[in-house]
Design brief:
Elements lengths: L9 H31 L1 E5 L5 E6 L4 E6 L8 H17 L1 H12 L6 H12 L32 H4 L9
Antiparallel strand pairs: 1-2, 2-3
Helix pairs in contact: 1-3, 3-4
């Protein structure tokens, strides 16, 4: 938007004000279009191993998850890793989707488009090609070992009680 030059004659000031107000209204319309389209945006991503497909919205929330029948033959840890990796890759593509929307709508105010897109890049960074940070949180699918209970000792007072044991 260009800077309006107010002052001088009354007619010139009124024309400049009308031009400035029209430019503000046009910019507002563009930002409203961006807001609406970003709210409706979704990103689809499929895992490289073919086990899962995910859909996320612009807030990064998982909206759809499809698990292939192939998942029956893999461990829970492998399936979890596939889901999480695919989810993070989908989330990292949200900034690209927002960038496309901003370009299509034509937001041209200096810095506005960059600020909006970079906020999504900071929130949803590109996943590392190395081991993801959450990988150490994936637990083995083996059942936990049985708990060992200490031997219960009964006193003479316990034998007089007709109700259930407190420790049961």
């Amino acid at each position: 938007m260009t800077d309006a030059e107010f002052g001088g004659s009354e007619v010139r000031t009124e024309r400049e004000f009308a031009r400035w107000a029209a430019a503000v209204a046009a910019a507002s319309e563009k930002y409203q279009q961006v807001s609406t389209r970003v709210t409706e945006a979704v990103v689809h991503e499929a895992s490289r191993d073919g086990l899962v497909k995910v859909t996320v919205d612009a807030t990064g929330v998982l909206r759809d998850l499809e698990i292939s029948d192939q998942a029956r033959g893999v461990s829970g840890a492998t399936l979890t890793a596939s889901i999480m990796t695919t989810l993070h890759r989908a989330q990292s593509r949200i900034a690209d989707a927002v960038s496309e929307i901003v370009a299509e709508v034509g937001v041209d105010a200096p810095g506005d488009a960059e600020a909006l897109v970079s906020s999504y890049r900071r929130r949803f960074p590109e996943p590392s090609p190395d081991t993801p940070a959450w990988a150490n949180q994936v637990r083995s699918s083996a059942p936990p070992p049985p708990l060992k209970r200490p031997a219960q000792h009964h006193s003479q007072d316990d034998e007089d009680w007709d109700g259930p044991a407190v420790t049961e």
